[in-house]
Design a protein that fits this description.
Length: about 240
């Protein structure tokens, strides 16, 4: 067997495994920011994180965050860090609402992920039941989906950030809520996400995982985290569904 033949056979096996993963899914859980849209495409998450840090510093709370947390450029990391030190406090509630307002503003400039809309509509049309499982505010998700005419594909199964911030992914809490809401068996459920925390949450909930990576760097991060199945375009998934129709 030549190296080229072995590589071709490996690609064929991976393609068939991916096809089986997609076609056996009776319930599909989507992460929101990434697989469905780039929420902060025109309203950067880094700037939002910086503004949250500045707001804390303006209240004399500079020492509340470590240097790495201040420099993380991840608004969810900032939120989680404050919640760890002051769980359930008014401070956390106000910070979470500030993030939600920033996310709501970002929906007007969010960039739809290529092929996400037709994939969602097709998956819904062939009888699979869909849900959102995200660390973003459910208010934000509904606002975005309403603007794309996609709410009927998911409603009422939109499970996002709550006041219990320690239950954000990688905790599987929102996935388990989605499974319970759908009445879904984990073995018949597929999670589509774009981060290692999505993968970890899927493993915690006992559901299959398909990674979406819009570039090589993101694919490497997912592969290094242990993701077995990763696609660079949702068109790959859409074509599998259309082939089954």
């Amino acid at each position: 067997m030549t190296p080229d033949t072995a590589q071709t056979e490996q690609v064929t096996v991976e393609t068939e495994n991916l096809r089986e993963l997609i076609t056996k899914a009776r319930h599909v859980l989507f992460d929101f920011d990434g697989p469905i849209c780039r929420l902060f495409a025109g309203h950067t998450a880094e700037r939002v994180a910086g503004e949250l840090v500045e707001w804390l510093e303006g209240r004399g709370l500079h020492g509340l965050l470590t240097e790495s947390e201040r420099d993380s450029l991840d608004p969810h990391m900032v939120l989680r860090a404050v919640d760890r030190r002051h769980p359930g406090s008014d401070l956390v509630a106000e910070l979470e609402e500030r993030l939600t307002q920033e996310e709501l503003r970002a929906t007007s400039s969010a960039m739809p992920t290529a092929y996400a809309d037709p994939l969602i509509r097709t998956w819904s049309a062939v009888g699979s039941r869909l849900a959102i499982a995200t660390n973003n505010s459910p208010r934000v998700v509904r606002t975005y989906l309403a603007g794309r005419g996609l709410v009927p594909c998911f409603a009422p199964h939109i499970y996002g950030r709550t006041q219990d911030l320690h239950l954000l992914k990688p905790d599987p809490h929102c996935l388990i809520r989605a499974l319970n809401g759908l009445g879904a068996a984990p073995s018949a459920t597929l999670m589509i996400g774009d981060t290692p925390t999505d993968l970890e949450a899927a493993e915690g909930a006992g559901v299959s995982f398909l990674g979406y990576a819009r570039n090589d760097r993101k694919e490497k991060v997912l592969r290094d985290a242990g993701a077995e199945h990763v696609v660079g375009s949702l068109d790959t998934v859409l074509q599998v569904l259309r082939d089954q129709a």
